[in-house]
Amino acid sequence: MAFRLKLVPDDTRINFFRWQWLTFGISAAAMIASIIITLTMGLNFGIDFKGGTTIRTETTTPVDVGTYRQALDGLGLGDVAITEVFDASFGANKHVTQIRIGPQTNAQAVTPEELTEVEAALKKVDPNVTFAAVESVGPKVSGELIKTAFYSVGAATIGILLYIWLRFEWQFAIGGVFALVHDVVLTVGIFSLFQLKFDLTTIAALLTILGYSINDTVVVFDRLRENLMKFKSMPLIDVMNLTVNETLSRTIMTAVTTAIALTAMLVFGGDVIRGFVFAMLWGVFVGCYSTIYVAKNIVLWLGVKRDWSKKVRTDAATEAEGHGTPFSDMP
Amino acid sequence: MLDIAPWKRILILLVTLIGIGLAVPNLFYGRVEAHNDAISAAEKAGFATPEQKAAEAGWPGFLPSTLINLGLDLRGGAHLLGEVHVQEVYKSRMNSLWPELRRVLSEARDQVGAVRRVPSPEGTLAVEIGNPDQMARAVELARTLAVPVASISGAGQTDLAITAEGNRLIVTLSEAERVATDDRTMQQSLEIIRRRVDEVGTREPTIVRQGKDRILIQVPGIGSAAELKSLIGTTAKLTFHPVVGRGTDPNARPGIGNILVPSLDEKGVFYTLEETAVVTGEDLTDARPSFDQNGQPAVEFRFGPSGAKRFGAFTAANVGQPFAIVLDNQVISAPVIREAIPTGSGQISGSMNIDQSTQLAVLLRAGALPAQMTFLEERTIGPELGQDSIDAGRLAAIIGTVGVIAYIVASYGLFGVFASIAVSVNVILILGIMSLMGATLTLPGIAGIVLTVGTAVDANVIIYERIREELRKGRRVGPSISTGFQEAMSAIIDANITTFIAALVMFFLGSGPVKGFAVTLTIGLVTSVFTAIFLTRLMIAVWYERTRPKQLIL
């Protein structure tokens, strides 16, 4: 017999809903905690959303952040934050810092004179320093960027809601979207808790989490719908348990492959996109959890209409539309 | 499900091969890029230098040579988001309308009385007339200056909105004309920026309009955003004005219709000039660096026919009078007109070095931006950082792919190998399609590909898990595989469409990194459905036909 790696045994009969109140309670508590953390600690907005300038410096000699700060102190730039960046991929003679200057009062991103002054001041204390990246966003644009970011997350959620509603039942749509909100809130909470930089790429990550999480949810819903037709008299909770058990192997398998790919990116992808990859990796775990414990809990409570005399007909119609005709005839 | 018609097999293989073919040039990025650059440079110049010929020969011409466009974060370069002050144009339109309006009204002086311009908000022209009871006549006269707006939305409207308020005649641009003007201003700005960026000869700059009054400029390979800014941001608005007076008081009141302009090289000197220019830089046909009679760097310029005519008439009528050459709101020089200049050529001299005179000539030749620009966002990414990012991204992609392949092969054996081939082809197809479309690959885009590798397996996993279930029920191998594919289809389609919705939203609402990510994610979705459903099935079908296994361990 050939060797097969199986993280999930062939025939699982886990009762996922035994602790439904507890798990849902944990989810609810985590969401509330996330909201409270975000409100009290705030988010570490990057310049995309806050305006201002970031300068990435690279030098061959070890960096003394204090010297840098002293060099910039006299320039009257207001809020200046200097952090040293460490990364496994850097060589021994590569030292990187990230300098963030708060938005200046003018509508322009930054005046060229200010930038020249900053660069000259740093050159003075460290002649080897080079400026690998300089980015400025004016306060006018940053406000708009926040707005579009919110719109895009909102629009994606609504689009997904509509699709599930059309394709399944409204209970599924609500369950699925609630799971999405859960994932987004928890991710934002984590970013606030660890004060990770929250910028445009984080929004891209959030949208991906939306996509991944709903992907996962939809695959399970799809099977649930199928089982609901197959086991017409089985209580809803049992059908759900059966469904989760049946799809568990796939859920884990996909989560692991995605996690492998993302972990490679997290470890070897360099520090520039680390925050972005971290958000996605976290989203894979949260998305997996929310599929089982949030989306289906809600569907369970809302109940699915199981008036079979009518139900079978509508479901069959949906089925015929879904995976009957258009695709099965393809090569 | 397992018998696939021969032509379908050929089609699947063909698509795969074309995809691979399109992706191949990216393996030899440097050579192909040199080849493409040499061809376009030779086309532009009309002949090819030996170096260009060598570069062109570096990549065979019959092979595909489209490349993925590397984003600024990977290649290094500058990014600017500028806002064009479109309203400025309204003001200059009103200023240039004033002399005409004065002429029309003063011809009917016996009816409307004395005419006088009075202060008004920017972009409006307010005129007081002596006989308010003849206002209707004045409005009628002013209307003769209006012309119909030539745009679809503004059809049937004229360009001027003329109203009367007591003894004042108020002229503004009509709503339709404002829209049309804004549009023209933006197009002109785009064109001028494009020409200026082209002057420095960088590769594939992106210059696009964004929204109502914004322009996004991305130039790979340029040293810094500041450099780019000084190249395009200089308005280089050249105008020639009659001089009214000269003084040292910066707060002097120049009077209606006049402006106070500081001198460039004489500190503390201010000229009072007529606001309406005789000739502007738009009439220039040529400008080049030269030297004046004292051997100092200067810029020689030449006007087009209409500019030359106006310049000639003005100089003929004002011999002995000074006129001011104004560049970007500073008087460069104010020479006295010694004789009429009918040829329409002249010289700008002042305190400048050779570099400055060359730069000025370039700016004049490229034309003036019709309105000022403010830069809202600027980013510079150094080329080393870009290279580091590419290296890191490549390493991560390789390790990620190897890890995922090891895991699926361990889980599904031979079928895992099939899935791995499908996933690898998937990545190649993404790169191929991106090359074909000339899409831009960014750092988040690489992350998108890595994520696609992770999720592309999902479709295969859904199928395989279904086959496992069928096998467990004790069904035979062939039907199990068929049913597995069939039953998995609905879940795969649903799952991909929902992700597609998110990707689409990212593409249309997002900017910068979000968009780059959306591009690879969207392409990856399409290719992963192709590889998971078609390619994997083809491989399994071929394998099944050859071995006809009685038993399958999955």
Automatic annotation (TrEMBL), chain A:
Question: Which GO cellular component term is one of those annotated?
Answer: plasma membrane
Q: Name one GO biological process term.
A: protein targeting
Listed under subunit, the entry gives: Forms a complex with SecD. Part of the essential Sec protein translocation apparatus which comprises SecA, SecYEG and auxiliary proteins SecDF-YajC and YidC.
Query: How does the UniProt record describe the way this protein sits in the membrane?
Result: Multi-pass membrane protein
Organism classification, top ranks?
Answer: Bacteria, Pseudomonadati, Pseudomonadota, Alphaproteobacteria, Rhodobacterales
Q: Does the keyword Transport apply?
A: yes
* Ranges where the Protein export membrane protein SecD/SecF C-terminal domain occurs: 118-303
Say what the protein does.
Answer: Part of the Sec protein translocase complex. Interacts with the SecYEG preprotein conducting channel. SecDF uses the proton motive force (PMF) to complete protein translocation after the ATP-dependent function of SecA.
Q: Which family does it belong to?
A: Belongs to the SecD/SecF family. SecF subfamily.
Please name the Gene3D superfamilies in this protein's record. Answer: Multidrug efflux transporter AcrB transmembrane domain
- Alphabetized InterPro entries for the sequence: SecD/SecF_arch_bac, SecD/SecF_bac, SecD/SecF_CS, SecD_SecF_C, SecD_SecF_C_bact, SecF_bac
Keywords, A to Z?
Cell membrane, Membrane, Protein transport, Translocation, Transmembrane, Transmembrane helix, Transport
Organism listed in the record: Paracoccus suum
The protein's GO terms of the molecular function aspect are:
protein-transporting ATPase activity
Q: What is this protein called?
A: Protein-export membrane protein SecF
Report the locations given in the UniProt record. Answer: Cell membrane
What stretches pass through the bilayer?
21-43, 149-166, 173-194, 200-221, 252-270, 276-304
Automatic annotation (TrEMBL), chain B:
Residue ranges annotated for the Protein export membrane protein SecD/SecF C-terminal domain, each copy included:
373-545
* Domain Protein translocase subunit SecDF P1: residue ranges: 186-243
Q: Which GO terms describe its cellular component?
A: plasma membrane
* Membrane-spanning segments: 392-410, 417-439, 488-510, 516-544
Molecular function, one GO term: protein-transporting ATPase activity
Keyword annotations from UniProtKB, A to Z: Cell membrane, Membrane, Protein transport, Translocation, Transmembrane, Transmembrane helix, Transport
| Ranges where the SecDF P1 head subdomain domain occurs | 263-371
Q: Where in the cell is it found?
A: Cell membrane
Per the record, membrane topology reads: Multi-pass membrane protein
Q: Does the keyword Transport apply?
A: yes
Give GO terms for biological process: intracellular protein transmembrane transport; protein targeting; protein transport by the Sec complex
UniProt KW DNA-binding keyword: no
Q: Which NCBIfam families match?
A: 2A0604s01 (TIGR00916), secD (TIGR01129)
Q: What does this protein do?
A: Part of the Sec protein translocase complex. Interacts with the SecYEG preprotein conducting channel. SecDF uses the proton motive force (PMF) to complete protein translocation after the ATP-dependent function of SecA.
Q: How does it assemble?
A: Forms a complex with SecF. Part of the essential Sec protein translocation apparatus which comprises SecA, SecYEG and auxiliary proteins SecDF-YajC and YidC.
Family, per the entry? Belongs to the SecD/SecF family. SecD subfamily.
- Name the chain's protein: Protein translocase subunit SecD
Gene field: secD
